[in-house]
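Figure S7 source data.
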Amino acid sequence: MTQRKITIAIDGFSSSGKSTLARDLAEALNYTYLDSGAMYRAVTLYCINHHIDVNDATQVEAALPHINLHIPPALSKTFAIHLNDRDVTDLIRSMEVSAVVSEIAAISAVRAFLVAQQQAAGKYGGIVMDGRDIGTVVFPNAELKIFVESDIETRIDRRHQELIKKGNTTSRLEVKQNLLHRDNIDSTREDSPLLKAKDAHTINNTNLTRAQQLQAAIDLVESVT
Ligand code: CDP
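Tokens for the predicted cytidine-5'-diphosphate complex:
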């Protein structure tokens, strides 16, 4: 593999396995990893903690100047996010946040606020960023774009198992409803809907192991570097 450091955009629906792939790929390439969804989740946590109505775009926009996000430079395994100097890496994964994060992410002012920070983080390449609009809006010129797909039942099982492992008692039905709710808002919102970029490569990982999906992505990296 050559040493040229590129920008890799990974998009897909919730729990499609894109974060796992993005982390594994960043680690294999020694690139920076950035989970853009964590930024939307951190803004959501701020709004919940400050009793801001997530459906009131004006209220949410007024809160943005009070939100300082910091992602300590680190390799993929230790990705963390700080909200106003507090490490909220675990707190942002709660169902309470998942329940309303897509409402927050549909607000244009929030997107503009976060996209600018994501673009600054990826300015020098050597980054793997995952999300919903990375290949279409954040880095439309990324050298490699991957769209991760997985069937819905597999996605529900993965997220349900992940929550159980963390001691969460959320039912499979609640997980399913949340994923379908977010899929719907994420793909129908007016600003930056979840779309597969025209030049993205699809990896469907329904029947792939973690190692196999990583290898498929590495093959793609080698084809463009
Ligand atoms: O981990 P999971 O796939 O469940 O979601 P996430 O990547 O943490 O993203 C949480 C939510 O943030 C998504 O459902 C989207 O509403 C929003 N998001 C977005 O709009 N754009 C991104 N680039 C990343 C996330």
